[in-house]
Amino acid sequence: MTFQTGHIGLNVTDLGKSTEFYRRVFGFTVAGESQEEGRRYAFLTQDGTLVLTLWQQSEGRFATALPGLHHLSFQVADLEAVRRAEAVVREIGATLHHDGVVPHGEGATSGGVFFEDPDGIRLEIFAPDGAGDRSAPTSGAPTCGFF
């Protein structure tokens, strides 16, 4: 038996705001949605494949101090794609960690950009190579730890 990740489902506080955020930053397409009160959701796809479902079923901000999701990571082909995503993150004013593109750790060539969605869910967009010429933001710990 083998497994692979299907799609990710996130609870959000404002479906419209979150849908627009994920469309802008990741280029996802809305493949289906419901605006029915009490049952608001959106299915977001990339190249026809369901990637993310957003469910308007929560209040407040994401609680990083509680057990559960730590962060979501998305891989792209190269560092140029990471830089394009970073530009959008900055343009829309999302919370950015580590002040831009950084390696995954000391001596790593992989790296990316670390930021938050409108509800405070921590996100990463990374490339497997090309970030080795930068300094790691945290000594002795993985950058994706958001330390």
Automatic annotation (TrEMBL):
Residues 4-128 form the VOC domain. One of its GO terms (molecular function) is lactoylglutathione lyase activity. CDD domains: VOC. It comes from the Bacteria. InterPro entries: Fosfomycin_Res_Enzymes, Glyas_Bleomycin-R_OHBP_Dase, Glyas_Fos-R_dOase_dom, Glyoxalase_1_CS, VOC_core. Keywords: Metal-binding. The keyword Metal-binding applies. PANTHER family: LYASE, PUTATIVE-RELATED-RELATED, SLL5075 PROTEIN. This is VOC family protein.
